[in-house]
Amino acid sequence: MTVNEERAEAIRWIQAQMADYELTMVELDAAGCFEPPPPPPAPPPPAPVCYRNAEGLTWDGQGEMPSWLKRAVNAGQSVEFFRVG
Q1: What pLDDT digit, counting tens, does each position of 44-62 carry?
Q2: Residue 51 · residue 61 · CB < 8 Å
């Protein structure tokens, strides 16, 4: 079935539903059927940066510690040395 055939079938189905329930275009419009959909929700803000090294690599403190920070800690540096703010 082509897109045009599917569309025509959908229109026939809608017309049949309108006839079965005795709905008018005015009633559908009043019910908000022709309003544009609401915009999608905004993405969550990025997690704040908690740790940063001299190269600008960052970590928000969530999840597994990144390799750059693991290497620094294994070399004897304190995690707190990289804390931002």
Answers
A1: 998 899 999 999 999 999 9
A2: yes
